[in-house]
């Protein structure tokens, strides 16, 4: 199936009985989470990419919010990155990602909420219009990184939030972490990275994650992330960037 994003005038590709389908967008950090889970568990599936600027009516019928990711298999439709990821973990229990301990699972759910706060600061930095505001956002981002550094350190075993193997939260957090250095390219700053002296546990997490096959399978380098985001800011997002014509 073509990876090109389907837009307003498209038709929904016919679904095959019993075949799991992911509706996605290649550069979406939320769909990125679900794609990581699918690849981690080696779940057979097909992907249909959506033009999120000119959404097809048939996609809005599936998910009136018009957001990705969405999973579909036969008459079952699940939307949202956490709902899709946790459904996959329940239905395909091999390589279990959610912690068995209810307390740890609850703690990780709280950490997930904090990612939204970090993302708000991060994208606020991208859209900042003056040096003072950008400087404040960079200070705030370091506070967010410190929060996760301390949480990792409190878990003792690493390098992942899940310990010696990644947990669901590792895949929830990774799309934000992967895109973090993109800020330097968008704001013409010196290198923006997670400082290994200040954040040794986060640095170890990043080094371990980037080598994982499921991460490599859906990764983009910083230049590609930045080029797409610039097209998004311009109002003409290039959803099919890097695909053969």
From TrEMBL:
Gene3D superfamilies xref list: 1.20.1050.10, Glutaredoxin (3.40.30.10)
Domain GST C-terminal: 101-229
A GO CC term assigned to this protein in UniProt: cytoplasm
Domain GST N-terminal: 18-96
Reactions mediated catalytically: methylarsonate + 2 glutathione + H(+) = methylarsonous acid + glutathione disulfide + H2O; RX + glutathione = an S-substituted glutathione + a halide anion + H(+); L-dehydroascorbate + 2 glutathione = glutathione disulfide + L-ascorbate
One GO term (biological process): glutathione metabolic process
One Pfam family, short name: GST_N_2
Residues in coiled coil: 131-158
SUPFAM superfamilies: GST C-terminal domain-like, Thioredoxin-like
One Gene Ontology term of the molecular function aspect: methylarsonate reductase activity
EC code(s) of this entry: 1.20.4.2, 1.8.5.1, 2.5.1.18
Keywords carried by this UniProt record: Coiled coil, Oxidoreductase, Transferase
Family classification: Belongs to the GST superfamily. Omega family.
Cited PANTHER family: GLUTATHIONE S-TRANSFERASE OMEGA, PTHR43968
Function: Exhibits glutathione-dependent thiol transferase activity. Has high dehydroascorbate reductase activity and may contribute to the recycling of ascorbic acid. Participates in the biotransformation of inorganic arsenic and reduces monomethylarsonic acid (MMA).
Protein name: Glutathione S-transferase omega
Species, as recorded: Elysia chlorotica
